[in-house]
Amino acid sequence: MPAAWRWALVLLIAVVALAVALWPREHRDLRTNTATAVRGGPAAASDGERADAALAECPAQSTPAPAAGPLAGITVGCLRDGRPLDLGAALAGRPALVNLWAYWCEPCARELPALRQYAARPDALTVVTVHSDPDEAKALARLRDLDVHLPGVQDGDGRVRAAVGAPAVLPVSVLVRSDGSIAKVVVRPFDTADDIAATVAGELRVGA
Predict the structure, then answer these.
(1) Selection from 32, 52, 14, 40 nearest residue 155 by Cα
(2) How much helix, strand and coil, in percent to the nearest 5, is found in the chain?
(3) 113 exposed, middle or buried (CB, 10 Å; 0-12, 13-18, 19+)?
């Protein structure tokens, strides 16, 4: 091969490599983000960030009976104060809606206000949000900006997702019976409080 052709080939390879290196990478794949969440990481929030979010207290165990079901023994951190919480024990004896979300998830951001509206109804289930990404501080900031103050827990390593067998998408809502068993894993965002209430009534026969 003539020297001129060799140099042209080298130049072409260099240009292609440079173009690949500079190509925009703004798209965030949901499964990539979820994989990061499952790995977990040290991103604890400060006391000031917790205070600014003004979340409701995490549920406390209401029955002396031992927790049962897939959430029994799953320890997460309460977003309000950072304390460890046995989620199965906290929900034992009451039906609940456990919502998996992340700060970067836009469908989650649209769904969270509907969950807030549903939770305010007198016949609503206990609603607990589960932040499924390691960055706890960004979760608190997102909830503050959305004016959502539901009880929430931090689960950066994806233990709740794994326990209930939820797929690697967000948001996911888990309907939990009072005995700790799972009635339904809802793999879609809820549109309205009425949508949530109808799904709860259909799956748990609670509310109307």
Answers:
(1) 40
(2) 40, 15, 45
(3) middle
Using CA atoms, how far apart are residues 35 and 73, in angstroms rounded to an integer? 23
> Half-sphere exposure of 136 toward its Cβ, with a 13 Å CA cutoff?
25
Question: What is the rounded CA–CA span in Å between residue 62 and residue 66?
Answer: 11
Fold exhibited by the domain 32-204: Glutaredoxin (3.40.30)
pLDDT digits 0-9 by tens, 13-27: 554 444 434 333 333
Which three-class secondary structure state does DSSP give residue 84?
strand
The 8-class DSSP code of residue 122 comes to: T
pTM score above 0.85 = no
- Residue 160 is predicted with a pLDDT of 98
Residue 157: name the closest of 182, 181, 185, 136 by CA: 136
3-class secondary structure, 156: coil
- Chain-centre distance of CA 156, in angstroms? 9
Name the strand (E) or helix (H) holding 75.
strand 75-78
CA–CA gap between residue 16 and residue 32 (Å, rounded): 26
- pLDDT digit string (tens) for 64-120? 666 789 999 999 999 999 999 999 999 999 999 999 999 999 999 999 999 999 999
Could you tell me the residue ranges of all domains in the chain?
32-204
